[in-house]
Design brief:
It comes from Paenibacillus allorhizosphaerae. With about 325 residues, the protein is of the alpha/beta class. It folds into two domains: about 130 residues, Phosphatidylinositol (PI) phosphodiesterase (TIM Barrel); about 100 residues, no CATH class. Helix content is about 30%, strand content about 15%. Strands 1, 2, 3, 4, 5, 6, 7, 8 and 9 form a nine-stranded mixed beta sheet that branches. α5 packs parallel to α7.
């Protein structure tokens, strides 16, 4: 009996070692198919004013804590997006809010109070009324002593239709800033009017409910939400060591915090190769995912990425990051 136990124990140990070696060989980037090319650069809100990140909450007015301006652009405006693409962005991210007259305004905040000279939610106004407000009104780098953009942002808030018309061939990441499924349905109806090749260059992300609504009405469009991320990554973490790609990982987008990436099977090259095979885009964001809008905003930040990283990179300062790759 003892001999049988020893034999079984030995076989179990041998099997474990075989699986361990298999998992290593099947997930080590050293044995992955070589990747080439440059990273995909995603410009968050175009080329925008950056701000102090410490202590930010959902209701923090970030316009009141910007750094001393180094450029004249304001987030979510057409000039900011033009500057981002000209600097070398592959994708520009933008935020949308519904308006009183059934359009989408390109604007980040829940209310107009922080950045503009108006009050209340954008949905209380028509698009024409929103264009009368000064979107640079509230920006200050010295706690209200000076307002460098006041008076310069009148008419600067674009509609989503204007952005789509201005950038007909560029890739855009559209952010629904709520969890209202009706907004997802409204956006799907608007995007359905576009030709297929244009829709293929768009990705929509946001709350679980509006994104589920978008996907229901437009199953061909790339989407992302916390729910889609979990449905992909949780089973991948469980069985991805075998090389299996869950169906939920197909044709979607993943925003991976830099500190989480190394815990994913095959990170970085095998993981990226697997997601490429599933037509899924991988974007690395800064930190552990707990900070708002954290990205790679200085050239030295890129040292935190794996060597020769070729996935997507989230940045708030495309003007600093793109020159590193586009010399």
């Amino acid at each position: 009996m003892n001999r049988l136990k020893k034999i079984l124990k030995g076989k179990t140990t041998a099997l474990f070692l075989v699986l361990l070696v298999f998992a290593y060989l099947n997930n080590s980037s050293h044995f992955a198919k070589a990747r080439s090319g440059e990273p995909l650069l995603l410009a968050h809100r175009g080329l925008a004013q950056t701000f102090v990140m410490e202590g930010i909450a959902n209701d923090t007015c970030t316009a009141e804590r910007i750094y001393e301006p180094e450029h004249p652009y304001l987030e979510n405006t057409i000039p900011a997006m033009e500057a981002a693409f000209e600097a070398g962005a592959d994708i520009v991210e933008l935020d949308i809010r519904p308006t009183k007259d059934g359009q989408f305004a390109v604007f980040h905040d829940w209310t107009l109070d922080c950045r503009t000279n108006a009050k209340g939610e954008p949905k209380l106004y028509t698009m024409a009324e929103l264009k009368q407000f000064d979107i640079g009104y509230g920006y200050t780098a010295d706690r209200g002593k000076t307002f460098p953009f006041r008076g310069k942002g009148i008419g600067g808030m674009p509609s989503l239709d204007e952005v789509l018309a201005r950038f007909p061939a560029q890739s855009l990441l559209i952010h629904i800033k709520s969890n209202d499924p009706k907004e997802g349905e409204q956006l799907a109806q608007a995007l359905a009017k576009l030709p297929e090749d244009r829709r293929n260059r768009l990705t929509v992300y946001g709350g679980d409910e509006p994104i589920a609504s978008v996907k229901t009405h437009m199953p061909d469009i790339r989407v992302m939400s916390k729910a889609t991320m979990k449905s992909c990554l949780l089973p991948y973490i469980a069985v991805g060591w075998t090389g299996y790609i869950p169906s939920a990982c197909e044709r979607t987008q993943l925003h991976i915090p830099e500190k989480i990436g190394p815990w994913l099977w095959g990170w970085p090259d095998r993981f990226l190769n697997r997601m490429d095979g599933a037509d899924t885009r991988v974007i690395v964001v800064g930190g552990d995912g707990s900070e708002f809008s954290s990205g790679f905003d200085r050239a030295e930040d890129l040292a935190r990425l794996p060597t020769h990283f070729t996935g997507g990179i989230w940045t708030n300062r495309i003007d600093r990051i793109a020159p590193v790759y586009h010399k």
